[in-house]
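Quick one from the shared queue. A colleague (R.T.) flagged GerMN domain-containing protein as missing a structural entry in our internal table.

Convert sequence to structure tokens.
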Amino acid sequence: MCQEWAEVSMTDRRARRSAWRVVSALFVAASLAVGLGGCTGIPRDGVVHAGNDIAPDDNPAPVFLPALPQKDASTESILRGFIDASSSPENNYDIARQFLAPPFQSSWDPTSGVTVDNGSGRTLTVLDDATTLVAVTPIAEVDQSGEYREVDASPVPLRYEFAQIGGQWRISAAPDGTVIDENTFNDVFSAQPVYFYDPSFRFLVPDLRWFPRGASAPTKLVNAVLNGPSAWLAGAVATAFPEGSELTADAVQVVGRQAMVDLNSEALNADRQTLQRMKAQLAASLPTGLTVEITIDQNSQAITALESGAPLVDPRVDARALVLRGDEFGFLAATGQSITALDGLSDTIAQLAPTAVTLASGQGSAAVLASDGVYVVRAGDDPELLDARAGLLAPSIDNDRFVWSVPANDPSALVVYSPTGDATLLPTPWPEATSIAALKVSRDGSRLIALLGTGSETRFVIASIIRTGAAPIGIGAPVLLASGGGIGRDATWINELTVASLSTLPSGEARIVAQQIGGVSTILESPLSSRFIVGSNSVRDLRALTDTGSLEVQRGAGWQARIDEVTLLATQQGLGG
């Protein structure tokens, strides 16, 4: 027997969610009476912006009170109740465990992962009195470490077995982890980046994680830092914590607005600067509004802030568009009527008649694509031709002034040029790719995005950059990001956690997809005939250049032409040097 779960269970879930929100509202009202703030949730549309602006003590998570098992309930009712109750992590999923047979209650592991679906396509198939299959269609998964990944929507069967305990049906076997519909997930879970250092300790590099909101969130975030980065970042980032550093107890106490982090004796191997870096790494990884106090085996540590060399987080770029218009190259004024030149750079770049420019952080040098190849231009110097191969892409330049250059028809021929002009052919991890439309290094220099063609398919990927000292020596295994399909045209970094790709669909329509790294993707309204996109400091500041030379900016729900006759829209890598 197979039946659609959607019609009945969606009604049940709406009722339960309404009750949940009533309870949450009453709880918040009571909290306000004693001076606490209200609760907030993750935005339900657009790109998720990670982080929480209020300390957990002041921001109680919604209180979800699912129903307990009812007397003489059928296996179907027990199953539905269990899946709904498993959305509530309170008291180690105590209510959900009451739907389980006693021998299974302690062995079921709800923290092994989360399957997120839209809640409307679940089907239930009864194999026999003691066995039922539930087919769910996932849209995303969250693993045990809090890593979120969007997945293809194809049904997955989950097997549940039942036994009678004292004349009452209970679940005796079930998959580990939980199944949550996306609306409930957005209420229960929150996204927060944990941070690791680039190898030079100049930048903090984000690694987005998703955990249930509530009192346990700081503990989970600290453990995520101590356990190290996601697999795809391993080898490209560093941690300040000495090997073997752990919490002495699996709990971070939050007193007032201060997170108390007590580490084991392995942390005694840290010198003064390392302790300062440890504190800075934790402070960035916890929700905004919390301060951090580190103790070691309950012994206080006098850890001052880094006086110099504090790491940069989410490097910003000049908010003005950087354009070539006519024979002028520079920053477009807010009025759109004038262009401000870059001292020592603009004239030289304009004389090359470039088709692409990437301005290095500090604005003292740039990688430039001209008709005869890729140049590096340094303020006050003559341009230096680095790569004279045909068919090159727009080059990228990283914080150590290495220039990245690759032909569009040969993605494996990626060459990196050092500041002294030495060329290194860098091994690439995409042997199946036959073309490449964009390759952009992140502003922290630890990651890159690439828009690849594999026959008739477009793949948008992110990968880490492996270095020895400052020199790139390899690229980590790529992670697939969402793309718009069609033919890939361009890609860009928007900020430390958000990227975007531009493609042209078979219909000729341009499509821009914004992707939060480790989070959700969103299809944006796209201007017609777009051929280049460039990020600034937020999704709303994304810019596009059309085939007709119109610079387009987002206004309200659509796009508006800012200025015409623009030849080139340049990429910036950051304000700092």
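The CA atoms of residues 258 and 410 lie 52 Å apart.
The longest strand covers residues 457-468.
Added to the table.
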